[in-house]
Amino acid sequence: MLVLIPLILIFSLSSGVLILRNINTQINTLVTQVRAYSKLTAKPIGDTYSLYYESGYLKFAELTNQILALNPDIKKVQIISVTGEILFDSDQLINTQKPKTIAKEQDSQVVEKVKSNLRSESPSNGSNARPEQIIEPYFEDFGAHPFSVRYFVSYSSISENVFGTVTATMLLSLVFFVASIVLIISTVNKRILSPIEEVTRGAGKIRSGDLSYKIDVNTKDEVADLAAAVNQMAATLRKNIEDLKALDKLKDEFVFIASHNLRTPLTIIKGYTEKLLNEADLSVGAKKEIENMSQATGDLETITESLINLVALEKGKEPVLLSEVEITDLLRRTAEQFGEAASEKKISFIFEFPNQPLPKMRLDAGRISQAFANLIDNAIKFNKEGGKVIIKVEKNPKDVTVSIQDTGIGIRKEEQSKIFEKFHRATDTLRYDYEGVGLGLYLTRLIIQSHLGKIWIKSNLGEGTIFFVQLPFREV
């Protein structure tokens, strides 16, 4: 207990010194900041006064308030002419109308400082002084000095922070005091602390993902029991992750096999419906029902193919079949596939291609066409009646950027980061009863990434969406 008395005295003394130094540091920092603020803002305040005070007082008041808000330690600003007139006082900003009267500065020393064209402080200009007023001369662009800006400095924030400073310093001293005691005790209890540190270190490694790490503690006490529990937890997590991976693999295999097995019956159903539609003696009602059946079969076939492509692209089961492709021709041909759908909504295509022919690119034509088809389909599907789809190509030194823009409903900002996720459909679009299961853009992203490209989006709600695709040139 007697050992603690000198420690308490030392920390009490150090706390007092720290408090005084902290307060002095705050004051010096405040003085430095207001000096820098006055130097940096005199010109903007003067320019704002010259431009807007007479012709647009509300604009002047708005800009001046913004400047004053940058430093709360400046309690007031005045603009004083070289003849001693107070042209502006920030206390007047509470009024929405420009003041009709101009006051006269009564302090002759202030007027003399304004006339001197020099910067000055009151009570003094010493580096260690605590100025209450700062006068900064304002010079027009051609050198004239019509007035100076006078800043009134407030030190009230220091007083307001004294309690916080004292509290923080005392707490800090208390922390050091406790740390000293802990340090003394730790030398005695090293046998207990070391195993705890080992458990903490092991838990950190396991938390960061190293589930193979094993905590080695052999103290045969509660700490050893804790280490064993953490090791068991890591082993359980490792097994659960392996089980989830196996389950994910089974899911992919099931989707792939089920989709493949659906192809044949769907092809047969589609063939029979097409044959039935060619029968001449069908009634109007029967023909309509068969057309609906054919449409539903086509939709199911599209979903089946999407699922097959999804598994193949995710697992890399199908290689990228590169060939030389003229990107602008591919875009035109892909857009032509949607001519009928665009005509139904009176949507027009606009192509903005470079005047000079682009060099051929090494692409998987089928996959890339599928990706662009998904984007064009969305541009039509989510467009407005009589809208536009703008397809633009830009050649860069190392790549080509394709943008597909619509004038449709747009996508909420919070949805844009999720738009390329699997099975995701933007919240707003659900209201429009659009078809699809949320795989199109996810597949598009996988296709673009398989070509070492990038895809991103820019959209404003109610104005439309632009999808950007960047594909690198590859050597032939």
UniProtKB/TrEMBL annotation:
Any GO molecular function: phosphorelay sensor kinase activity
GO cellular component: plasma membrane
Enzyme nomenclature, EC number: 2.7.13.3
This protein's UniProt keywords: ATP-binding, Cell membrane, Kinase, Membrane, Nucleotide-binding, Phosphoprotein, Transferase, Transmembrane, Transmembrane helix, Two-component regulatory system
One Pfam match: HisKA
Subcellular localization, as worded in the UniProt entry: Cell membrane
SMART domains: HAMP, HATPase_c, HisKA
Catalytic activity from the UniProt record: ATP + protein L-histidine = ADP + protein N-phospho-L-histidine
Primary localization: membrane
Membrane spanning stretches: 162-185
Residue stretches making up the Histidine kinase domain: 257-475
SUPFAM superfamilies: ATPase domain of HSP90 chaperone/DNA topoisomerase II/histidine kinase, HAMP domain-like, Homodimeric domain of signal transducing histidine kinase
InterPro entries recorded: HAMP_dom, HATPase_C_sf, HATPase_dom, His_kinase_dom, HisK_dim/P_dom, HisK_dim/P_sf, HssS/ArlS-like, Sig_transdc_His_kin-like_C
Boundaries of every HAMP domain copy: 190-242
CDD domains linked to this entry: HAMP, HATPase, HisKA
Membrane topology qualifier: Multi-pass membrane protein
Name the record gives this protein: histidine kinase
Organism for this UniProt entry: Candidatus Woykebacteria bacterium RIFCSPLOWO2_01_FULL_41_12
